[in-house]
Each structure stands twice: as structure tokens, then as C-alpha cells.
Design brief:
Number of helices: 10
Oligomer: single chain
CATH architecture of the largest domain: 3-Layer(aba) Sandwich
CATH topology of the largest domain: Rossmann fold
Largest sheet: 6 strands, mixed
Helix content: 25-40%
Number of domains: 2
Number of strands: 10
Structural class: alpha/beta
Distance between the termini: 30 Å
CATH class of the largest domain: Alpha Beta
Order of helices and strands: EEEHEEHEHHHHEHEHEEHH
CATH superfamily of the largest domain: P-loop containing nucleotide triphosphate hydrolases
């Protein structure tokens, strides 16, 4: 377990008598981009929500860098090093891009009321550092020219880029990407793919759910395929593409 950044063992989630996820396991290594795919109803969204802390498991365990986070709420997982993006980003529309970014910075001294009076220099220094980091990340995702514009002006693809930059403000070791290609035009999708690769090259691990198979095969080092709530197959993109069971699941109608 110590060699894996993120590990789920025998995760199960039941809704009444239905097992949406049934003894499902996965592990992501440091610096890996791991894809999670499957036909509609396979249980991948529930699996993702279990990893993110949006829902609680009925059984099994989740470890982040060796720490048991099985029942930790989402904000505790962020503090422990796991960030996530959402399929439909919802930035604060009337705040500027820079303000949206600044809000994502974790554990600022200025968040404590009295610190603004007892340690003003430290508060100011941290705020300057956060602002510099936010601008650098906005520049990374090609949004720095819009830094002082309200987030409501952004297109769907630009919101995905802002979401990616914003999650990096927390310095996560693992980022869960929820359908990053959804609603993104082809030109901005190329930018998004390139930026994910750039961030990954710094050692950040990614786990992503995605229906865009071309994006998955281009980005991911390994792919896990789910069907009917369980593991169907795991392997490299070329192995997944030619596996008969995967082909049957997608083309033969196997779904949960």
C-alpha cells in the first residue's frame, strides 16, 4: 500500500438491494494517469463518488498515501492531498477568475480572525504568495488575460480549465477528474489535455472518468473497465482496446 498514492480495496455501495459498486478495487501509482471507464450503468460514477467522499461505502476501504480515508469527508480528503473537479464546473459567477482561484487556497493564516491583527505581515505575505500562485496557474491554462474578468463570461471549456487550475491551488497529490472532456470544444480540449499532461509531469497523479475514449487512450497510462458494478478488465490502453470482454461490454449491451 505504501507504494500506491491511492488505493481502494473491495469497495461496495448498496442502495437498498442494489449493489451499484460490488467489491471493486483499484490502485493508482505516484505520477500515474489512471482512467476509469465502462458502459452506461457500470457503476463508475458511484465508484468515483466513493473515492471523492461524496457518498459513504457500504463496505471496503480507501487509503490515500497510506492513510485510511474511508469515512473522511470530502474536505478532509482535500487537506490530505486529494482534489477533485466536477463534470459541470460551478465557479462563483460574479467573482473574478483570480478571486475564484484565491478562494481555493488552503490553510491561510488570514482565515483565522485574530491573525489579521496579531500577524498582519504573515497574512499579507501569504496572500501575495497565493496571488502569485493563482496568476501562474491561470497562465498555465491560458486564462491569465481574463484574470480580472467575472467567471460568468467563461465558455464551458474555459470553465473546465479554470476548474483544473483552481484545484491545483490546494497542491494535491491526487486529482480526481470527473468527465473533463464533457462540453469542451475540440480546440480547448487539446489545451486541456496538454495542461493535464504538464501537471502530471510534475508528479501529480490523476484518476479520471471519461466517455471520450480518444482522450482516455491518449492520456492514460492504465485503464480500468467496470461493468455491472465490478472490475471487468484492467490494462494499458492498447490491451483494453482489443480485449474481447471490453468490446462485448460496449457493443454487446452489457450494462448495470
Amino acid at each position: 500500500m505504501s507504494q500506491m498514492v491511492l488505493e481502494a480495496r473491495n469497495l461496495t455501495k448498496r442502495f437498498g438491494g442494489l449493489a451499484a459498486v460490488d467489491t471493486m478495487s483499484l490502485a493508482a501509482a505516484p505520477g500515474e494517469i489512471l482512467g476509469l471507464i465502462g458502459p452506461n450503468g457500470a457503476g463508475k460514477t458511484t465508484m468515483f463518488d466513493l473515492l471523492a467522499g461524496s457518498v459513504s461505502p457500504s463496505g471496503g476501504s480507501i487509503h490515500l498515501m497510506g492513510q485510511d480515508i474511508t469515512h473522511a469527508p470530502a474536505h478532509r480528503r482535500l487537506s490530505a492531498g486529494m482534489g477533485r473537479t466536477f463534470q459541470i464546473p460551478r465557479p462563483f459567477p460574479e467573482l473574478t477568475l483570480l478571486e475564484n482561484m484565491m478562494l481555493a487556497r488552503q490553510d491561510q493564516t488570514g482565515e483565522r480572525f485574530w491573525a489579521n491583527f496579531t500577524a498582519p505581515r504573515r497574512v499579507a505575505a501569504e496572500e501575495r504568495a497565493a496571488r502569485d500562485k493563482a496568476m501562474a496557474l491561470l497562465d498555465l491554462v491560458a486564462l491569465s488575460r481574463l484574470a480580472r474578468d467575472p467567471a460568468r463570461i467563461l465558455s464551458g471549456g474555459q470553465r473546465k480549465l479554470l476548474e483544473l487550475a483552481r484545484v491545483m491551488m490546494a497542491d494535491p497529490k491526487v486529482v480526481l477528474l470527473d468527465e473533463p472532456a464533457a462540453g469542451v470544444n475540440p480546440a480547448l480540449l487539446e489545451v486541456l489535455i496538454a495542461r493535464i499532461q504538464t501537471i502530471n509531469a510534475t508528479g501529480v497523479t490523476f484518476v479520471l472518468i471519461e466517455h471520450n475514449i480518444d482522450m482516455v487512450t491518449r492520456l492514460c497510462h492504465r485503464i480500468i473497465v467496470m461493468a455491472q458494478g465490478s472490475l471487468l478488465f484492467a490494462g494499458k490502453p492498447d490491451e483494453v482496446a482489443r480485449n474481447p470482454r471490453v468490446i462485448e461490454a460496449y457493443l454487446g449491451g452489457a450494462a448495470a
